[in-house]
Amino acid sequence: MHISTALAALLAASLSTASPIDKRISFPAPPGGDGTILNYALTLEYLERTFYMEGLANYSQAEFVAAGFPDPFYANLKEIYVDEQTHVSFLSGALTAAGVTPTVELVYCFPATDPSSFVTLSSMLEGVGVSAYLGAAASIANKDYLTAAGSILTVESRHSSYIRAALAESPFPFPFDTPLDFDEVYSLAAAFICGGSSPVTLPFKAFPALTLQCTQANRSSVTFHDAFLLASSTFPITSSTPVYAVFFSGLQQLPVQVYIPAGGKDYKISAIPAGVAGMVYVVLSTSATDFGDENIIAGPAILEVYPIGGAPR
After folding, report:
1. What is the chain's alpha carbon radius of gyration, rounded to the nearest angstrom?
2. Numbers of helices and strands, H then E, in the chain
3. Distances (CA, A) of 123 to 45, 77, 196
């Protein structure tokens, strides 16, 4: 009894002094509730399944070995493909059993051109998958669905760690994974959908894409290419409108006000904020305190951030 009380007090104290986490722990359920969430997950699983199917067909075991991914990497990619296929079958079956029309496979365009770029893109997709399931978890009403989603989430996380290690990146770079909301994930996934049609229309929107360039040395500046030009042509934004680059890392949201450098097209920040590491998401927001979808004007973009003083092995 005394131990439980002490632990509760310790937890309350730690949460009261931690980085802000209140607004990104959970997101409101979308229209259609659990059925929409399962179709959202199925959309992502179809994308991942096709990605691995095409990669295994396009690049041989010998080509992966030559690119620096020795055995049993190719065999393990096959296992990941089987996992994604199993997730597709499971989610499609769950939707059908619930009387909800499941979405279908679309046409995807992936920018991988060789085994190395394929593995780099694999790491990004697996990381986004983790963020998608984590962000959706609190919106799932049916506890059986929640348990199933959690079971898939942990497998996606293992995929992510394995691929990161293969890229000589830390397999666990941060104490917390990063939840993303439905529109943020959909914005990232939509970049790879280049055709096809589905009987299901998801109630999500894609934000304008965000392209960045960063030099990792000493966490130096980040340039968001043409971001001011695009934002000012899409939203009621002028050169005097405060805009913030918001970094999502774990349960943290760290805003940094941007400025417009010479040329008048880009947004830029002088340094990546301290306290972020691993696969970090960045959006542009018109608010320094409320990073909801209504204030996001571009993103997310993805940035691999090494710990201060660190670098890829």
Report:
1. 20
2. 8, 9
3. 15, 12, 25
